[in-house]
Write a structure and sequence with these properties.
Elements: E1 3-4, H1 7-27, E2 33-39, H2 43-59, E3 62-68, H3 74-86, E4 92-95, H4 105-111, H5 123-131, H6 140-151, E5 160-164, H7 171-180, E6 184-188, H8 195-200, E7 204-207, E8 225-228, E9 232-233, E10 239-240, H9 245-248, E11 254-255, H10 262-281
Parallel strand pairs: 1-11, 2-3, 2-4, 5-6, 5-7, 7-8, 8-11
Antiparallel strand pairs: 9-10
Protein backbone atom coordinates (compact mmCIF):
# COMPACT_ATOMS: atom_id res chain seq x y z
CA UNK A 1 0.00 0.00 0.00
CA UNK A 2 1.35 3.41 -0.99
CA UNK A 3 1.96 6.27 1.43
CA UNK A 4 -0.79 8.85 0.97
CA UNK A 5 0.65 12.32 0.52
CA UNK A 6 -2.26 14.23 1.99
CA UNK A 7 -2.58 17.97 1.76
CA UNK A 8 -4.01 18.56 5.25
CA UNK A 9 -0.77 18.26 7.25
CA UNK A 10 1.01 20.46 4.70
CA UNK A 11 -1.70 23.11 5.04
CA UNK A 12 -1.53 22.94 8.84
CA UNK A 13 2.25 23.39 8.83
CA UNK A 14 1.94 26.32 6.43
CA UNK A 15 -0.76 27.90 8.60
CA UNK A 16 1.48 27.87 11.67
CA UNK A 17 4.21 29.66 9.75
CA UNK A 18 1.88 32.13 8.03
CA UNK A 19 0.11 33.11 11.25
CA UNK A 20 3.45 34.16 12.76
CA UNK A 21 4.38 36.13 9.65
CA UNK A 22 1.00 37.85 9.48
CA UNK A 23 1.35 38.81 13.16
CA UNK A 24 4.74 40.35 12.40
CA UNK A 25 3.22 42.33 9.54
CA UNK A 26 0.49 43.56 11.89
CA UNK A 27 3.22 44.78 14.24
CA UNK A 28 4.40 46.96 11.34
CA UNK A 29 0.82 48.24 10.83
CA UNK A 30 0.44 46.25 7.60
CA UNK A 31 -2.60 44.11 6.86
CA UNK A 32 -1.70 41.67 4.07
CA UNK A 33 -4.45 42.10 1.52
CA UNK A 34 -5.59 40.07 -1.47
CA UNK A 35 -7.75 41.40 -4.30
CA UNK A 36 -9.93 38.73 -5.91
CA UNK A 37 -11.11 39.73 -9.37
CA UNK A 38 -13.96 37.76 -10.89
CA UNK A 39 -15.83 38.29 -14.15
CA UNK A 40 -19.23 36.64 -14.18
CA UNK A 41 -20.61 33.79 -12.04
CA UNK A 42 -18.78 30.63 -13.13
CA UNK A 43 -19.53 27.92 -10.53
CA UNK A 44 -15.88 26.85 -10.26
CA UNK A 45 -14.79 30.48 -9.69
CA UNK A 46 -17.43 30.92 -7.00
CA UNK A 47 -16.37 27.69 -5.30
CA UNK A 48 -12.70 28.66 -5.26
CA UNK A 49 -13.56 32.16 -4.07
CA UNK A 50 -15.43 30.75 -1.07
CA UNK A 51 -12.46 28.52 -0.26
CA UNK A 52 -10.01 31.40 -0.62
CA UNK A 53 -12.11 33.71 1.58
CA UNK A 54 -12.30 31.08 4.32
CA UNK A 55 -8.56 30.36 4.20
CA UNK A 56 -7.67 34.06 4.18
CA UNK A 57 -9.90 34.77 7.17
CA UNK A 58 -8.33 31.94 9.15
CA UNK A 59 -4.87 33.44 8.56
CA UNK A 60 -5.72 37.10 9.17
CA UNK A 61 -5.42 38.11 5.52
CA UNK A 62 -7.83 40.75 4.25
CA UNK A 63 -9.68 40.16 0.97
CA UNK A 64 -11.33 42.63 -1.38
CA UNK A 65 -13.57 41.01 -3.97
CA UNK A 66 -14.09 42.87 -7.23
CA UNK A 67 -16.82 41.44 -9.44
CA UNK A 68 -17.63 42.44 -13.01
CA UNK A 69 -20.56 41.43 -15.15
CA UNK A 70 -19.84 38.63 -17.62
CA UNK A 71 -20.48 41.11 -20.44
CA UNK A 72 -17.58 43.33 -19.28
CA UNK A 73 -15.07 44.43 -21.92
CA UNK A 74 -11.28 44.57 -21.85
CA UNK A 75 -11.26 48.27 -20.99
CA UNK A 76 -13.51 47.80 -17.96
CA UNK A 77 -11.34 45.05 -16.51
CA UNK A 78 -8.19 47.00 -17.35
CA UNK A 79 -9.48 49.86 -15.21
CA UNK A 80 -9.88 47.49 -12.26
CA UNK A 81 -6.39 46.03 -12.69
CA UNK A 82 -4.88 49.51 -12.98
CA UNK A 83 -6.55 50.51 -9.71
CA UNK A 84 -5.14 47.41 -7.99
CA UNK A 85 -1.65 48.21 -9.27
CA UNK A 86 -1.87 51.73 -7.80
CA UNK A 87 -3.42 50.78 -4.45
CA UNK A 88 -0.52 50.35 -2.02
CA UNK A 89 -2.67 48.59 0.57
CA UNK A 90 -3.36 45.71 -1.86
CA UNK A 91 -0.44 43.29 -1.96
CA UNK A 92 -1.65 40.54 -4.26
CA UNK A 93 -4.23 39.95 -6.98
CA UNK A 94 -5.97 36.70 -7.88
CA UNK A 95 -7.66 36.97 -11.27
CA UNK A 96 -10.01 34.11 -12.09
CA UNK A 97 -9.54 32.66 -15.55
CA UNK A 98 -10.51 31.83 -18.22
CA UNK A 99 -11.98 35.22 -18.96
CA UNK A 100 -15.01 35.67 -21.25
CA UNK A 101 -14.32 35.89 -25.01
CA UNK A 102 -15.15 39.59 -24.89
CA UNK A 103 -11.91 40.23 -22.95
CA UNK A 104 -8.34 40.08 -24.24
CA UNK A 105 -6.95 37.77 -21.57
CA UNK A 106 -3.29 38.11 -22.55
CA UNK A 107 -3.48 41.89 -22.48
CA UNK A 108 -5.17 41.90 -19.09
CA UNK A 109 -2.66 39.50 -17.56
CA UNK A 110 0.25 41.63 -18.67
CA UNK A 111 -1.29 44.76 -17.16
CA UNK A 112 -0.95 43.34 -13.66
CA UNK A 113 2.14 44.44 -11.75
CA UNK A 114 4.50 41.46 -11.27
CA UNK A 115 4.91 42.47 -7.62
CA UNK A 116 1.20 41.75 -7.09
CA UNK A 117 0.98 38.75 -9.43
CA UNK A 118 0.67 36.09 -6.76
CA UNK A 119 -0.47 33.38 -9.21
CA UNK A 120 2.18 33.72 -11.93
CA UNK A 121 -0.08 34.90 -14.76
CA UNK A 122 2.10 37.63 -16.27
CA UNK A 123 4.87 36.99 -18.75
CA UNK A 124 7.25 38.82 -16.41
CA UNK A 125 6.46 36.38 -13.59
CA UNK A 126 6.86 33.35 -15.84
CA UNK A 127 10.15 34.70 -17.17
CA UNK A 128 11.41 35.10 -13.61
CA UNK A 129 10.96 31.36 -13.07
CA UNK A 130 13.17 30.58 -16.04
CA UNK A 131 15.97 33.01 -15.06
CA UNK A 132 15.69 32.34 -11.33
CA UNK A 133 15.13 35.95 -10.31
CA UNK A 134 12.49 38.62 -10.60
CA UNK A 135 9.56 40.20 -8.81
CA UNK A 136 6.84 37.71 -9.68
CA UNK A 137 5.71 34.43 -8.18
CA UNK A 138 5.36 30.96 -9.65
CA UNK A 139 1.81 29.81 -10.42
CA UNK A 140 0.33 28.69 -7.12
CA UNK A 141 -0.34 25.10 -8.21
CA UNK A 142 3.22 24.61 -9.46
CA UNK A 143 4.58 26.05 -6.22
CA UNK A 144 2.20 23.80 -4.26
CA UNK A 145 3.72 20.72 -5.91
CA UNK A 146 7.12 21.80 -4.60
CA UNK A 147 5.73 22.42 -1.12
CA UNK A 148 4.18 18.96 -1.09
CA UNK A 149 7.44 17.30 -2.14
CA UNK A 150 9.41 19.25 0.45
CA UNK A 151 7.00 18.54 3.30
CA UNK A 152 7.19 14.80 2.68
CA UNK A 153 10.96 15.04 2.24
CA UNK A 154 11.00 13.56 -1.24
CA UNK A 155 14.60 13.76 -2.52
CA UNK A 156 14.89 15.95 -5.62
CA UNK A 157 18.64 16.32 -6.09
CA UNK A 158 19.53 13.99 -8.96
CA UNK A 159 16.04 12.45 -9.12
CA UNK A 160 14.45 11.72 -12.49
CA UNK A 161 11.09 13.47 -12.70
CA UNK A 162 8.61 12.97 -15.52
CA UNK A 163 6.16 15.87 -15.84
CA UNK A 164 3.11 14.94 -17.90
CA UNK A 165 1.54 18.18 -19.09
CA UNK A 166 2.98 21.29 -20.72
CA UNK A 167 0.68 24.13 -19.68
CA UNK A 168 1.98 27.45 -18.42
CA UNK A 169 -0.13 26.96 -15.30
CA UNK A 170 1.53 23.77 -14.08
CA UNK A 171 3.64 21.68 -16.46
CA UNK A 172 6.22 24.15 -17.71
CA UNK A 173 6.69 26.13 -14.48
CA UNK A 174 6.91 23.08 -12.24
CA UNK A 175 9.55 21.63 -14.60
CA UNK A 176 11.63 24.78 -14.13
CA UNK A 177 11.20 24.72 -10.36
CA UNK A 178 12.33 21.09 -10.30
CA UNK A 179 15.34 21.86 -12.48
CA UNK A 180 16.31 24.62 -10.07
CA UNK A 181 16.41 21.95 -7.35
CA UNK A 182 18.77 19.80 -9.42
CA UNK A 183 16.25 17.21 -10.55
CA UNK A 184 16.52 15.76 -14.05
CA UNK A 185 13.23 16.53 -15.77
CA UNK A 186 11.59 14.87 -18.76
CA UNK A 187 8.70 16.93 -20.15
CA UNK A 188 5.91 14.82 -21.63
CA UNK A 189 2.34 15.31 -22.78
CA UNK A 190 -0.61 13.33 -24.09
CA UNK A 191 1.01 12.96 -27.53
CA UNK A 192 4.41 11.79 -26.32
CA UNK A 193 5.52 8.54 -27.94
CA UNK A 194 6.09 5.68 -25.48
CA UNK A 195 4.62 7.81 -22.68
CA UNK A 196 3.86 4.88 -20.38
CA UNK A 197 7.43 3.61 -20.69
CA UNK A 198 8.86 7.02 -19.86
CA UNK A 199 6.56 7.36 -16.86
CA UNK A 200 7.50 3.92 -15.53
CA UNK A 201 11.19 4.85 -15.60
CA UNK A 202 10.88 7.93 -13.40
CA UNK A 203 11.51 8.35 -9.68
CA UNK A 204 8.76 10.97 -9.47
CA UNK A 205 5.79 11.51 -11.80
CA UNK A 206 3.77 14.72 -11.89
CA UNK A 207 0.49 14.34 -13.81
CA UNK A 208 -1.18 17.54 -14.97
CA UNK A 209 -3.10 17.01 -18.21
CA UNK A 210 -6.74 17.19 -17.10
CA UNK A 211 -7.58 13.66 -18.26
CA UNK A 212 -9.89 12.00 -15.74
CA UNK A 213 -8.26 8.74 -14.62
CA UNK A 214 -6.24 8.83 -17.84
CA UNK A 215 -3.16 7.07 -16.45
CA UNK A 216 -3.48 3.55 -15.09
CA UNK A 217 -1.14 1.06 -13.47
CA UNK A 218 0.58 0.34 -16.80
CA UNK A 219 2.17 3.80 -16.53
CA UNK A 220 3.77 3.30 -13.11
CA UNK A 221 6.25 1.14 -11.27
CA UNK A 222 7.08 0.16 -7.70
CA UNK A 223 8.50 2.78 -5.36
CA UNK A 224 7.58 5.85 -7.40
CA UNK A 225 6.26 9.10 -5.96
CA UNK A 226 3.17 10.27 -7.86
CA UNK A 227 1.88 13.82 -7.67
CA UNK A 228 -1.59 14.01 -9.21
CA UNK A 229 -2.50 17.61 -10.00
CA UNK A 230 -5.64 16.79 -11.98
CA UNK A 231 -9.02 18.05 -10.80
CA UNK A 232 -11.65 16.30 -12.90
CA UNK A 233 -15.16 14.92 -12.57
CA UNK A 234 -16.21 11.53 -13.86
CA UNK A 235 -19.51 10.65 -15.52
CA UNK A 236 -21.18 10.30 -12.13
CA UNK A 237 -19.99 13.70 -10.91
CA UNK A 238 -17.28 12.36 -8.61
CA UNK A 239 -14.07 14.34 -8.31
CA UNK A 240 -11.02 12.43 -9.50
CA UNK A 241 -7.47 13.04 -10.62
CA UNK A 242 -5.54 12.31 -13.79
CA UNK A 243 -4.33 9.07 -12.22
CA UNK A 244 -6.55 6.01 -11.87
CA UNK A 245 -6.01 5.93 -8.12
CA UNK A 246 -7.66 2.56 -7.49
CA UNK A 247 -5.25 0.68 -9.77
CA UNK A 248 -2.14 2.81 -9.24
CA UNK A 249 -2.10 3.19 -5.44
CA UNK A 250 -1.26 -0.51 -4.82
CA UNK A 251 1.71 -0.24 -7.20
CA UNK A 252 3.60 2.94 -6.31
CA UNK A 253 5.46 4.05 -3.20
CA UNK A 254 3.59 7.28 -2.51
CA UNK A 255 0.74 9.18 -4.13
CA UNK A 256 -1.40 12.27 -3.62
CA UNK A 257 -5.14 11.55 -3.36
CA UNK A 258 -7.81 13.51 -5.24
CA UNK A 259 -9.54 15.10 -3.46
CA UNK A 260 -7.39 15.70 -0.40
CA UNK A 261 -4.06 16.33 -2.08
CA UNK A 262 -2.67 19.28 -4.01
CA UNK A 263 -5.87 21.34 -4.09
CA UNK A 264 -5.82 22.61 -0.51
CA UNK A 265 -2.07 23.21 -0.66
CA UNK A 266 -2.60 25.39 -3.73
CA UNK A 267 -5.00 27.65 -1.83
CA UNK A 268 -2.57 27.97 1.06
CA UNK A 269 0.26 28.69 -1.35
CA UNK A 270 -1.76 31.55 -2.82
CA UNK A 271 -2.06 33.01 0.68
CA UNK A 272 1.64 32.48 1.30
CA UNK A 273 2.39 34.50 -1.81
CA UNK A 274 0.18 37.35 -0.55
CA UNK A 275 2.05 37.39 2.75
CA UNK A 276 5.41 37.33 0.98
CA UNK A 277 4.31 40.17 -1.30
CA UNK A 278 3.37 42.23 1.75
CA UNK A 279 6.72 41.44 3.36
CA UNK A 280 8.56 42.49 0.22
CA UNK A 281 6.60 45.74 0.08
CA UNK A 282 8.04 46.86 3.43
CA UNK A 283 11.41 45.15 3.16
CA UNK A 284 10.79 42.30 5.61
CA UNK A 285 11.66 39.45 3.23
Amino acid sequence: MAELLKGKPVVEAMARDLELRVARLHEHNVNPTLAIVRVGQRPDDLSYERTALKRAESLGIDVRSMVLNETACTEELATVIDAINKEVTIHGCLLFRPLPPSIDENAICDLLSPEKDIDGITRASLASIFVGQGAGFAPATAAAVMRMLDYYEVPLHGAHVVVVGRSLVIGKPVAQLLLARHATVTMCHSRTADLAELMRGADIVVCATGRARGYGKECFSAGQVVIDVGINFDGEGNMCGDVDFATVEPVVGAITPVPGGIGSVTTSTTMAHVVEAAERAIGLS
